[in-house]
Amino acid sequence: xxxxCFAGPARYRxxxxxxxxxxxxxxxxxxxxxxxxxxxxxxxxxxxxVLRAPMxxxxxxxxxxxxxxxxxxxxxxxxxxxxxxxxxLLFTVLPLLWGWMSIFGLDPDYxxxxxxxx
Length: 118
Hints:
Number of helices: 3
Strand content: under 5%
Radius of gyration: 22 Å
Helix content: 55-70%
Shape: flat
Largest sheet: none
Order of helices and strands: HHH
Number of strands: 0
Oligomer: single chain
Distance between the termini: 70 Å
């Protein structure tokens, strides 16, 4: 008699997995390049174009590729609700944090138009 309980991977049970692990690996590599780019931006001497080349190479592709892959794997069933939640949190929590910082004497000096490394 064949057992009704089988705890093995789905591929052995005849079920086709719905997740494409190649996309997961690609997103993992791109996340690593984000970390590497930030590390290079904070640590390297950037006086010469040759020294800046690795950072420029990473920044030329990693975020567009990550956004593309995230768009492929995104589920849009609750997208309007998720966007609304994000915007409500963005426009309520951040002003509250800046107000709290101002009350306690911390200077919330932050420019949205200037990157942190310039």
